[in-house]
């Protein structure tokens, strides 16, 4: 059966363009459109769509209020349609907090041409969003793990996280469980340039660690989080006894810049066994090969499990390729990252994992026969 889509946007032009772009693919059926949330509410009851596209700034009720009510009363997959502005970025991140699965951006100028250029990208993302789970995210206690005890005092250990669709909320759930003196964390989240700084600011407010958008040449120190800027790759290199952020403008990998594979490969080269890395929810395969390179370099590796992931594309690919040492629910990932990072180097491989382990080769590579 085709995926039934309801388009909610106050702009008649945007409603028309989205309808044409989506309906051109036989995998979809655009069952209707609405100019404001009150009309949308009635059409959801009548038309029973599988997925919603939702604008933020609309008359009679703003998109965030509508989304909050929707997720409380009738949770369903939602793709936000956001403006490429600082205000648009902040509101979109709030929408992801409230349960939206993902977002696309509207250009500031020439909306028609800008949206039409994204046609194939939009349809691919909408298919993933329609299949996404709407998990009930865990809500941990306000105090981070560790209770303020000083467990980490060296830059030798690094935690690396890669994520995409569903990642902003999943990353936040991991970060809010970290103590103030945890090992430094480097993050590549697939995100546009206008959104990465607001995303880092939200991480800074949600837990005990300090978070920022990474800068070229910035020294990496414990207790701090470094988020790859949208539109630039993040590398980690060693400078003497310290690790340093390096930003690059190389071509996109896996259709992404920043790409998780780029970050993970740099860590495999420059930090190896001093790394604990995780791939969280996300569409595609980015990070899977990089996680395998890290595991082969002696790092400890884990991925988010399918049940707690919005989209099990990236974590599933990492498992298939043999890069995932263990598979964990989102609620257990922060604790396991800290446990592995705090283990002495001589004991890290012998320590007993608290999760299902996946040995290299136990699941065939997708390009190999079983």
From TrEMBL:
Posttranslational mods: Phosphorylated by CheA. Phosphorylation of the N-terminal regulatory domain activates the methylesterase activity.
SUPFAM superfamilies tied to this protein: CheY-like (SSF52172), Methylesterase CheB, C-terminal domain (SSF52738)
Molecular function via GO: phosphorelay response regulator activity; protein-glutamate methylesterase activity; protein-glutamine glutaminase activity
Active-site residues, record numbering mapped to chain: 164, 190, 286
Residues passing through the membrane, by range: none
UniProt xrefs under InterPro entries: CheB-like, CheB_C, CheY-like_superfamily, Sig_transdc_resp-reg_Me-estase, Sig_transdc_resp-reg_receiver
Known catalytic reactions: L-glutaminyl-[protein] + H2O = L-glutamyl-[protein] + NH4(+); [protein]-L-glutamate 5-O-methyl ester + H2O = L-glutamyl-[protein] + methanol + H(+)
Keywords, comma-separated and alphabetical: Chemotaxis, Cytoplasm, Hydrolase, Phosphoprotein
Its EC number(s): 3.1.1.61, 3.5.1.44
Domain Response regulatory, first and last residues per copy: 4-121
Pfam families assigned to the protein according to its UniProt record, in alphabetical order: CheB_methylest, Response_reg
Record bears the keyword GTP-binding: no
Chain spans, region Disordered: 342-370
GO cellular component, one term: cytoplasm
One Gene Ontology biological process: chemotaxis
Domain CheB-type methylesterase: 152-344
Record carries keyword Hydrolase: yes
Gene3D superfamilies: 3.40.50.2300, Methylesterase CheB, C-terminal domain (3.40.50.180)
CDD domains assigned: CheB_Rec, REC_CheB-like
Positions where 4-aspartylphosphate occurs in the chain: 55
HAMAP family given in the database record: CheB_chemtxs
Family: Belongs to the CheB family.
Entry's free-text remark on domains: Contains a C-terminal catalytic domain, and an N-terminal region which modulates catalytic activity.
Function in brief: Involved in chemotaxis. Part of a chemotaxis signal transduction system that modulates chemotaxis in response to various stimuli. Catalyzes the demethylation of specific methylglutamate residues introduced into the chemoreceptors (methyl-accepting chemotaxis proteins or MCP) by CheR. Also mediates the irreversible deamidation of specific glutamine residues to glutamic acid.
Protein name: Protein-glutamate methylesterase/protein-glutamine glutaminase
Source organism per UniProt: Stagnimonas aquatica
Name of encoding gene: cheB
């Amino acid at each position: 059966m085709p995926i039934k889509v309801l388009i909610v946007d106050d702009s008649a032009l945007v409603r028309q363009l989205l309808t044409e772009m989506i309906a051109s693919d036989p995998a979809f059926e655009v069952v209707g459109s609405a100019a404001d949330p009150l009309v949308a509410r009635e059409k959801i009851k009548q038309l029973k769509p599988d997925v919603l596209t939702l604008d933020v700034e609309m008359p009679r009720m703003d998109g965030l209020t509508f989304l909050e009510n929707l997720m409380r009363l009738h949770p369903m997959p939602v793709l936000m349609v956001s403006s490429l502005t600082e205000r648009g970025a902040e509101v979109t991140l709030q929408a992801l907090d409230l349960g939206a699965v993902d977002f696309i951006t509207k250009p500031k100028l020439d909306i028609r041409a800008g949206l039409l250029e994204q046609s194939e990208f939009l349809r691919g993302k909408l298919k993933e969003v329609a299949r996404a789970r709407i998990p009930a995210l865990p809500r941990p206690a306000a105090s981070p793990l560790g209770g303020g005890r000083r467990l980490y005092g060296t830059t030798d250990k690094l935690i690396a996280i890669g994520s995409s669709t569903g990642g902003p909320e999943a990353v936040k759930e991991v970060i809010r469980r970290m103590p103030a003196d945890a090992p430094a964390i480097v993050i590549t989240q697939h995100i546009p340039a206008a959104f990465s700084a607001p995303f880092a600011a939200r991480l800074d407010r949600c837990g005990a660690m300090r978070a920022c958008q990474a800068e070229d040449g910035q020294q990496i120190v414990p207790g701090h989080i470094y988020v790859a800027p949208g539109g630039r790759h993040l590398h980690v290199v060693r400078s003497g006894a310290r690790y340093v952020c390096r930003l690059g403008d190389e071509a996109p990998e896996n259709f992404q810049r920043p790409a998780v594979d780029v970050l993970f490969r740099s860590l495999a080269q420059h930090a190896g066994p001093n790394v604990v890395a995780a791939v969280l929810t996300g569409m595609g395969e980015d990070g899977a090969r990089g996680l395998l390179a890290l595991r082969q370099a002696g790092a400890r590796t884990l991925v988010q499990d399918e049940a707690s992931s919005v989209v099990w594309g990236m974590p599933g690919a990492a498992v298939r390729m043999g890069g995932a040492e263990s598979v964990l629910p989102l609620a257990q990932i922060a604790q396991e990252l800290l446990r592995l990072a705090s283990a002495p180097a001589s004991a890290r491989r012998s320590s007993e994992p608290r999760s299902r382990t996946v040995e290299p080769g136990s699941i065939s590579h997708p390009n190999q026969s079983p």
